[in-house]
UniProtKB/TrEMBL annotation:
InterPro entries: Dabb (IPR013097), Dimeric_a/b-barrel (IPR011008), TAT_signal (IPR006311). SMART domains: Dabb. It comes from the Bacteria. This is DabB protein. The lineage of its organism: Bacteria, Pseudomonadati, Bacteroidota, Cytophagia, Cytophagales. Residues 35-130 form the Stress-response A/B barrel domain.
Length: 137
């Protein structure tokens, strides 16, 4: 019985550690809504490597906004299915704990400076924002 209690203690301690690192709160009543902000940039000159490099530089600076939990910067994949959209130049996806954290990001000086310094590079952006409970599945 002593070994079982020790094992249970270690399992519970491990789960508690994981919960504190991942932001999970105890109990179903405290599930937070993860906020995902996905932006697709369409450069004015999509084949201009210098402009693409400048935008990437700006996005790496933008990733320093403190409320961002995770960032992914990407380019269209080489997949070929009829439902896949590949007409953008650069994709920027970032995760926030909730909508409040994303709203802070929208008005953060780093974000405003990014728009001011790099918006001349793109002809349009398309944004998809999504919310949902954390850790589904």
């Amino acid at each position: 019985m002593e070994e079982q209690s020790r094992r249970t203690f270690l399992q519970n301690a491990g789960l508690a550690s994981f919960a504190s690192v991942s932001g999970i709160t105890a109990g179903p009543e405290r599930v937070k809504e993860l906020f995902i902000h996905h932006v697709f940039f369409y450069l004015k000159e999509p084949n201009n490597a210098q402009h693409e490099a400048q935008l990437l530089e700006g996005l790496h600076k933008l990733a320093k906004v403190p409320t961002i939990q995770y960032v992914h910067i990407g380019k269209p994949a080489v997949t070929n299915r009829s439902v896949i959209v590949k007409d953008y130049t650069i994709s920027w996806m970032c995760f926030f704990k909730n909508i409040i954290e994303e709203e802070i990001y929208q008005t953060h000086p780093i974000h405003l400076e990014f728009i001011e310094q790099y918006s001349h590079l793109w002809e349009k952006v398309v944004v998809y924002d999504a919310v949902g409970p954390k850790n589904v599945g």
